[in-house]
């Protein structure tokens, strides 16, 4: 059936008609809000390259999560800025580390909020790499035990879910085994499975003070031109015990999100990363883009591509808009 019998514009005529045939709907249910925590008291330190994003101390983060919870967002993911860094990232797995203490405080204040913790070494190592070094190489296998210790320490503090973002081979299996050995059968794993070596992480490295001090992450994060390899990474993580798989970043990788959605039955998360946020904020601050409309268009696109969940710094703003 062709024009003039079929006229697609008939169903675009009014907002109510458009609502009836709308294929993709966003909900706060699908948002995960990232939070940066550091030591100290009374801290709410702005991150210059990410307007609206702050570093929080243990006391102030509690107010922030109540706000997040009140907006109907079910989950947060925590990143930590330690007091001291060293070669092997010791504070990452200290029982009184900054993330562990924040998890306890948040779980006390807001028990039904899902608390996810990022499991990685880069914020905690003096060299800023996501694993331990052997010379100038990031050494895979000796890193696995440390990642598993981090995950167990987060579970002991009360985290509902751990999210390894280091991209070492075999880390999901190592973490699952250690969690189970310690009795944390119910602690879920959200794996950063297809995590690309992306320049879109720039602002995050300022927020989390985690830039590598030499070299780059190309030997462990994925090469951006590869798509089939992402499917192998996802497959491996599922076999090793991931409960949720993630594609990261989101916008330049919508094709990957779509392929993962089509090939696997597992819940798929996508990370709308710091650079994707900063670009919109910067353009909006210049009056070059309508921030709210672009934000909703981008989040809708990520969901339409196939993501069940979206980690996004826009979560609060979008949830507010969705409930207005
Ligand atoms: C830690 C980690 C990074 C991000 C999440 N976890 C940075 C990196 O790999 O350098 C990026 C998040 C963002 O850009 O918003 N490995």
Provide the low-confidence segments as ranges.
none
Q: Strand order, main sheet: write it out.
A: 1-4-5-8-9-10-11-12
What sort of overall outline do the alpha carbons produce when their principal axes are compared? globular
Structural class: alpha/beta
Element order, helices and strands?
HEEEHEHEEEHEHEHHEHEHHEH
What is the alpha-carbon Rg in Å? 20 Å
Strand tally is 12
What does this protein structure show overall?
By secondary structure, the protein is of the alpha/beta class. Helices cover 39% and strands 18% of the residues. The chain has 11 helices and 12 strands. It has helices at residues 15-21, 58-70, 98-109, 140-157, 171-181, 202-207, 228-240, 254-263, 274-285, 291-305, 315-322, and strands spanning 31-38, 44-46, 54-56, 75-81, 114-119, 133-134, 137-138, 161-164, 188-195, 244-248, 268-272, 309-312. The strands form 2 sheets. An 8-stranded parallel barrel has the order 1-4-5-8-9-10-11-12, surrounded by 9 helices. A two-stranded antiparallel ribbon has the order 6-7. Helix 8 (254-263) links the parallel strand 10 (244-248) and strand 11 (268-272). The two termini are 39 Å apart. The model has no long low-confidence stretch (mean pLDDT 97). The structure holds ligand PBG. Ligand PBG binds next to helix 6.
């Amino acid at each position: 059936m062709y024009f003039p019998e079929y006229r697609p514009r008939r169903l675009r005529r009014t907002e109510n008609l458009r609502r009836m045939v709308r294929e993709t709907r966003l909900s706060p249910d699908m948002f995960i809000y990232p939070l940066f925590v550091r030591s100290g008291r009374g801290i709410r330190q702005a991150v210059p390259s990410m307007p609206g994003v702050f570093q929080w101390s243990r006391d102030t983060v509690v107010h922030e999560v109540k706000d997040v919870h009140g907006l109907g967002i079910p989950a947060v993911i925590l990143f930590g800025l330690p007091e001291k860094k060293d070669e092997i990232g010791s504070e990452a797995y200290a029982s009184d580390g900054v993330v562990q203490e924040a998890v306890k405080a948040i779980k006390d204040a807001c028990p039904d909020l899902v608390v996810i913790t990022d499991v990685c070494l880069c914020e905690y190592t003096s060299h800023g790499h996501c694993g331990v070094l052997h010379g100038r190489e990031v050494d895979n296998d000796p890193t696995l035990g440390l990642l598993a210790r981090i995950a167990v320490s987060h579970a002991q503090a009360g985290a509902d879910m751990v999210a390894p973002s280091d991209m070492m081979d075999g880390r999901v299996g190592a973490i699952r085994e250690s969690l189970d050995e310690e009795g944390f059968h119910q602690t879920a794993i959200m794996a950063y499975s297809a995590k690309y070596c992306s320049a879109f992480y720039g602002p995050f490295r300022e927020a989390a003070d985690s830039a590598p001090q030499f070299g780059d992450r190309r030997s462990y994060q994925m090469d951006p031109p590869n798509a089939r390899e992402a499917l192998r990474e996802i497959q491996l993580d599922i076999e090793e015990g991931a409960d949720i798989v993630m594609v990261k970043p989101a916008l330049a990788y919508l094709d990957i999100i779509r392929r993962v959605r089509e090939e696997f039955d597992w819940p798929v998360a996508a990370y709308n990363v710091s650079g994707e946020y900063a670009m919109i904020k910067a353009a909006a601050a210049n009056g070059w883009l309508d921030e709210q409309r672009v934000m909703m268009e981008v989040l809708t696109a990520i969901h339409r591509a196939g993501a069940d969940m979206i980690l996004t710094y826009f979560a609060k703003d979008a949830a507010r808009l969705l409930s207005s």
